From TrEMBL:
Pfam families in UniProt: MecA (PF05389)
InterPro entries found in the cross-reference section: MecA_C_sf, Neg-reg_MecA
Name the record gives this protein: NDP-hexose 2,3-dehydratase
Family: Belongs to the MecA family.
Organism superkingdom: Bacteria
Amino acid sequence: MRVERLGDNKVRFMLSYDDLDQRGIDRDEIWQNGRKVQELFWDMMEKAYLETGFEVAGPIAVEAFTMPTEGVIVVVTQLPSLPAHEQELLEEEDDDAEMTMISPDPFGAFTFVFQDLEEVIRAAHSLQAYEAVGGTLYHYKERYHLFFDEDEVGEELYDTFWSILHEYGELSPTTKAMLDEYGKRVMNGNAVQTITQHFPLR
């Protein structure tokens, strides 16, 4: 298990399938909030604190996705604290924290969301190093969404694509149909090439 700090409020864990096997956790079991998964989570938080200084205090968001060959990537983000009365209501509704996971179809279509265009540009240039093609860029809810169809990413580069994209953005559950209907299409079909040709790295 490896841990990497991505910013003041975010850390990323890389768990191999061997890591899960050593703890007696099946691949499908990682998406459940069972005792072994909870123990793993708090061991991860302890490792993050000891190695990076990241300390959990207050609400957090947990995102995870599986890589077909490498294992599971988990990103933990510290959220702004809620007002006292809202926190009390939240605690009354659910005393047990749960991890929310996103498990997309391996080698299927996917979308990553970015806070600003600069992050999209950096991601595109990193992808271009692997001769990436395709991608459709949308602007939706004040953020940029980069969609890749299943035939735009070969199996041999799938893990690499996800690792690069997750360095600059986050996996999004927003569907292409939703983006087509409510978002603005900025670049159609060849977003990676278009971005790298017209937007140099600063």
